[in-house]
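Structural biology now treats backbone shape like a language. To illustrate, our science desk offers a sequence and the tokens encoding its fold:
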Amino acid sequence: VQLQASGGGLVQTGDSLRLSCAASGDTVGIYGMGWFRQAPGKEREFVAATRRAGTTAWYADSVKGRFTISRDNAKNMIYLQMNSLKPEDTAVYYCAAVMARIISTMESTYDYWGQGTLVTVSS
């Protein structure tokens, strides 16, 4: 499985941005996908995740109500709609896929990772 994240950029506080992640290869076995982020000087942290089936999504408290994860299974895509962006959202955002029937906030759970896309929010 290969993951390609895109959509990052430089925005101002309060702006919106949508990240995309394209999955390719043997995607049939993917159970769930998620987004993580790593700010400068900090460890990578969970942002959001969803299963391939159903509508349930999980979010970090810091992004609840502002970010929305969605997917298009036909296109093997997931998205992260980010609204009301804040300077503290500045980070490299990574998409990840998990094959086991587990959705977790722990990055060690995920089997495949994209290369990351940089989001910079200016104040």
Q: What stands out?
A: DSSP finds no helices and eleven strands in the chain. The first strand starts at residue 2 and ends at 6. The mean pLDDT is 96.
